[in-house]
Amino acid sequence: MLVKIYPENPNPREIDKVVSVLRDGGIVIYPTDTLYGVGCDALNVRAVEKICEMKGINPQKSNLSIVCHDLSNISEYAKVDNPTFKLMKRNLPGPFTFLLPTTSTLPKIYKNRKTVGIRVPDNTIIREIVNQLGNPILSTSVKDDDDEIEYTTDPELIHEKWEDFADIVIDGGFGGIEASTVVDCTGDEPAIIRQGKGVLNL
Predict the structure, then answer these.
(1) Residue 7: which of 117, 93, 85, 112 has the closest Cα?
(2) pLDDT per residue as tens digits for the range 124-160
(3) I want to staple 152 with a disulfide (CB 3.0 to 4.6 A). Which of 27, 47, 143, 170 is the partner?
């Protein structure tokens, strides 16, 4: 199902529709401030496993990332010291993924790596969905290395490619082509391990 939601003024009825699919363990494709993402309720292990399998992600070897509404309940999911929190506050919402040590609230699938990526995208649609759901959403991009660019940026083509797998594809306008910048905050100093969109404000 393709659902049109406008970023300037997300329709509460459409947001509710997406949230109820997520509550039922469904898979949703959504816009962010970088690439379109594919995700589910991050605390629903079966749905997380389904996405990992489909995307060929091995949670033992890859960091999983989650989208949060803001930084207010970040300490539920990740351990954050003061300097890191200030760094995140300066740069979020924005096109960054911050790698942090996980807490015990997250399901075991995240603990294999002992770290989790935290995203707060500058996109009202996905943040409102997370807000209404009350849980973070798993975040992985729809992009595959062999994809033609249109299949990662045009919601109608994304829907055509993913409709058998995703319960809802949100049309929030054309997506970007650059991934987020990944910042590893698990060491003594923050380190950029993938430069993508955005310039980190240190």
Answers:
(1) 93
(2) 999 999 999 999 999 999 987 666 788 899 999 999 9
(3) 143
Check if the beta carbon of residue 43 is closer than 8 Å to that of residue 107: yes
Rounded distance, CA 17 to CA 187, Å?
A: 40
- 3-state DSSP assignment of residue 139: strand
Q: Which residues pair with 167 in a beta bridge?
A: none
3-state secondary structure of 12: helix
Check if the beta carbon of residue 196 is closer than 8 Å to that of residue 177: no
142, with CB counted inside 10 A (0-12, 13-18, 19+), is buried
Can you read off the two tokens belonging to residue 121? 């995208």
Query: Which domains can be identified in the chain, with CATH numbers?
Result: 2-194 (3.90.870.10)
At 7, list the tokens: 């970023």
SS3 content of the chain, % helix, strand, coil (to 5): 30, 25, 45
